[in-house]
Amino acid sequence: MLDCKHNTELLSQSYDRPITLRERIAMRMHLLMCRGCRNFEKQLAFLRKAARELPRKL
Amino acid sequence: MSDIDPEALQAHRSHLIRYAMLQLRDPNLAEDVVQETLVAAIESRAKFAAQSSPRTWLVGILKHKIIDLLRKRAREPQLNVAEGEDENELVDALFKENGHWADPPQSWNAPEQSLENAHFWKIFEQCNQRMPLNTARAFMMREFMDMTTDEICQELGISSTNCWVILHRARLALRECLDMNWFGNAR
Question: What is the complex's ipTM, to 2 decimals?
């Protein structure tokens, strides 16, 4: 079972490399049970969006 | 729009300087690279077509100039600064020994609205500047310059695993900083 620390690593890597099916399933399982990581997942998506918008906002 | 005069280009200067500063954190280097960008823009302004805004076009040129500069400097030994310890400390502080969150992330209230708030962008910029230089640099190559991790590894001379670790730390640090300083979850 993935712990939160490793789950956040995988969530982050999913923005940088293709994630295997096994990894994806492990992440989904963890997220089902962990509210903190669900919040983290949404916030990662927000960080990417914000960073990509930054050049236009400076 | 197809007629870009040198004066109009100068008007974008401060925007370009801020963009370059985020990546380089050195006023002199930022100044130089923006100067080069403006010169290149003036020289090639005939090629500027109205399909993009002048700013987008200028940022496009600037990105290339920054990448060239980083590439040149990567060959110089002084850029290979060891990563500080403080990032490991951050990860250690965020998670307990059993790998659970020490303090699980709380949800953020209406984050989309923040994107329209000028003050949010100030905080965002400050949070970026608070990251250690190499971490911030890798993060910006990935997110602002839209480089692949392979390209980043190559530029920074690090392995892809190392690159993923650095990018992950950057996101943890940025998340934490915004959480405390903007979304009001200071504890």
Answer: 0.95
